[in-house]
């Protein structure tokens, strides 16, 4: 088995609002291995982005707070580090590509200024060296005429070019973990394919691990080695990407895959759907959070949260349907 890069145990992140406590992450366990691409997939609001923001401790209080768990990286629990120590890791050893590059860049500074600032802060480069490195990183990300792009302001670039610049900035300090939160959102399919190809190439060249967050199973199938399926703040299934598609175990995973349009599907055939709606996480269902929508639900599902079980080598599932098979 590959060496673990970062290990998350019992992570609970809550948001304290005027209407109640939103239980966004309900004690998740997750390991990310060195030099792998791990995907997190699930519906909007299931906790994918909150997981990423919890790893780099960008959950803002108020209203959000990490209440329980450990995140072990490089022999240290990130949740116990001081703010200064965490800033030395964030953007340096662990970097993140955010969903919307247009809102992630500062609009009043050039691309060069913003990439150079990262290098001067974390790598202690002088301004000239940082400027040269910024141009080098833009070229590394496949940007034509990197000198021109470096002098540009964010509003002067297209969405695809901005995303490449964001990737350049994230990789500037040679991180060992790159978190990509919906990196192709709002991009057309041609640019999306280019960005995904770029990320595959960069992983090969740098050896970094990637945490890919998406709701698109097509992206998961194309770029990920393993995938965790999230529902309402829980990871319900975790396996290598081939087994997830060929042999899904959890009813929710089956529902997601069943809802994908088939190439040879007739126009008269209806797509499979998952009945019901995502629960209100201020008042989440007891037991298994998926049970109100699950056609396989049993009485135990309504009162007892299922444990994560290894059904096959490396294939984990959190579902009472498999409790007796393992026990």
Question: Could you list some keywords that capture this structure?
Answer:
single chain; 327 residues; alpha/beta; Rossmann fold; eight-stranded mixed β-sheet; four-stranded antiparallel β-sheet; 12 helices; 32% helix; 25% strand; globular
Précis, in short:
It is built from twelve helices and twelve strands. It has 327 residues and is an alpha/beta fold.
Your description of this structure?
With 327 residues, the protein is of the alpha/beta class. The protein has a single domain, classed as 3-Layer(aba) Sandwich (Rossmann fold). It contains twelve helices and twelve strands. The protein has helices at 48-55, 83-89, 101-104, 111-122, 127-140, 146-150, 159-171, 189-206, 217-223, 241-246, 251-258, 323-326; strands at 4-17, 20-33, 37-41, 64-73, 76-77, 94-97, 177-181, 209-214, 226-231, 234-240, 308-312, 315-318. The strands form two sheets. The chain has an eight-stranded mixed β-sheet, with helices on both faces. The protein has a four-stranded antiparallel β-sheet with strand order 2-1-4-5, with helices on one face. α4 (111-122) crosses α5 (127-140) and α5 packs across α7 (159-171). It is globular and about 65 Å long. The relative contact order is 0.14. The mean pLDDT is 91.
């Amino acid at each position: 088995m590959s060496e673990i890069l970062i290990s998350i145990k019992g992570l609970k992140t809550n948001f304290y609002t005027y209407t109640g406590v939103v239980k966004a992450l309900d004690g998740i366990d997750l390991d990310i291995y060195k030099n792998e691409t791990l995907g997190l997939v699930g519906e909007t609001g299931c906790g994918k982005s909150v997981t990423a923001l919890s790893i780099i401790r960008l959950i803002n209080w108020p209203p959000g707070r990490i209440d329980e768990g450990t995140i072990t990286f490089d022999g240290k629990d990130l949740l116990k580090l001081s703010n200064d120590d965490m800033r030395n890791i964030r953007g340096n050893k662990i970097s993140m590509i955010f969903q919307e590059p247009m809102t992630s860049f500062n609009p009043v500074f050039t691309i060069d200024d913003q990439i150079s600032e990262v290098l001067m802060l974390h790598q202690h480069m002088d301004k000239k060296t940082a400027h040269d490195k910024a141009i080098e990183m833009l070229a590394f990300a496949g940007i034509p005429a990197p000198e021109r792009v470096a002098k540009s302001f964010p509003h002067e670039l297209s969405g695809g070019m901005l995303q490449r610049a964001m990737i350049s900035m994230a990789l500037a300090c040679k991180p060992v973990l790159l978190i990509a939160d919906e990196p192709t959102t709002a991009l057309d399919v041609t640019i999306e394919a280019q960005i995904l190809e770029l990320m595959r190439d960069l992983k090969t060249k740098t050896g970094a691990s990637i945490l890919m967050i998406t709701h698109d199973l097509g992206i998961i199938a194309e770029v990920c080695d393993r995938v965790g399926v999230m529902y309402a703040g829980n990871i319900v299934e975790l396996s290598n990407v081939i087994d997830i598609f060929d042999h899904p175990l959890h009813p929710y995973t089956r529902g997601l895959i069943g809802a994908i349009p088939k190439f040879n599907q007739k126009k008269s055939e209806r797509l499979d759907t998952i009945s019901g709606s995502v629960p209100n996480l201020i008042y989440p269902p007891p037991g298994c959070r998926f049970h109100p929508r699950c056609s396989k639900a049993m009485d135990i599902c309504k009162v007892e949260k299922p444990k994560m079980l290894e059904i096959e080598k490396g294939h984990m599932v959190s579902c009472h349907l498999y409790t007796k098979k393992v026990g």
